Amino acid sequence: MKKFAKMSLVAALAVAGTAASAQPLAEAIKNVDVSGTVVYRYDDRAFEDDARDNGKNRDLGKNNYKIGLTAKAKVNDDVTAVTRFIVGSQTDAGFVSLDATNGSDGQADISLSNVYFSYTGIANTTINVGKQGLTTPWTVAVDADGNEQTGTGILALTNVGPVTLAGAYFNQTNLNNSGNGKGAIQGDENVITAGAMANIGPVALDGWYLDLQDQFDTFTLGAMAKFDLDAVKLSIGARHTEMDAEKDNTLGINHKDDNSLTKVMLGLKVGIFSADVNYGWTDSEGGLAALDDDAKTGMQGYTVQLNGVADAEYLQVKAGVQVLPSLKISANYHQLDKDKMSNNGVTTREDSTDTEYYLQADYQMSKNFGGYIRFGQAEFENDYTENGKSKDNDGTIGRLQVQYSF
């Protein structure tokens, strides 16, 4: 199947290359590696009030589709050409979403998301030049089932003993359309980032700095330790992120406010049983720490997330059991506590608690094909105002997702 996919997907490119360099078609195909994912997702939500669905409908059902395909062609011993194509949203490289409640079927766009050259001619060093994913803790460079942040620039990685150093500069990004900054960030604003990663025994450490022109500068520090104690597997992690906004930023952030998000993660696996507990909190002045809620610096649940919420605490608890080698059942509970906030004596947010809880069944039919189904309840306190009074908003939440990888 993979050989067939290679031939069918890159035949046109290979023929063009053959005409230009007189290289046999069969030889050109040998130097191309194709990988990717095909994802279908159905989301279904039904709330008491339409505040949860962009003011349109209390009930919301969406069909989501995305295909991501990456082709790597070896140019010579030192250079590899990398391209990535997305069948989905041309705007943010994410799903194409079709409203099953009020809309009709539609078609997806095909777009070129990545096209860059990777140079490995220097020992222990990789340099990527061109249009590529933004590989930082604040963004998501590649995602099978979500949007992606991309940009044009140069990224360099080099290994020095147990330490990996990274540096990147991008003069153009899609942050104006993808992630939490869409509509506020300009796509022509430069991004500069630098980082260091190291593995010391069972502990992985990383530290990064990023500057987004005219918007903010930010740093993050992370650590993750994994221990395999025969029948018991234990993981302990922590991450702290701070962001300082520029005076003239367009994100709507007061440059005098401190924005930070800190989280601690614990994981335990004993035989067929597993448990995860995550706890995070944000600064009293601001909680924006990620450009995408799914990024490492964020803390994402299902319908409840911590990133961008000031003066809040977030608890995530998950208990699972591996019923069969191919089937895992888990129970998930997430609770976000938001403290009361005021400005010049005027209350801008009441004390409130948002919760979600759901059951999930993960099924892996084969190494390259699987999915999950989840169903639960979400409760948002003081979610909207009616006749001058704050009202809660409760609803059911469900999802079906299927993924094929090749």
From TrEMBL:
Q: Which domain of life is it from?
A: Bacteria
Q: Which organism is it from?
A: Halarcobacter bivalviorum
The coiled-coil segments of this chain are none
Tell me which positions the record assigns to the signal sequence: 1-22
What is the protein's given name?
A: Campylo_MOMP domain-containing protein
Q: Name one Pfam family in it.
A: Campylo_MOMP
- Is Signal one of the keywords? yes
Checking InterPro entries in the record gives:
Campylo_MOMP, Porin_dom_sf
Q: Sorted alphabetically, which keywords does the UniProt record give?
A: Signal
Transmembrane parts of this sequence: none
**Taxon lineage:** Bacteria, Pseudomonadati, Campylobacterota, Epsilonproteobacteria, Campylobacterales
Q: Which Gene3D superfamilies match?
A: Porin
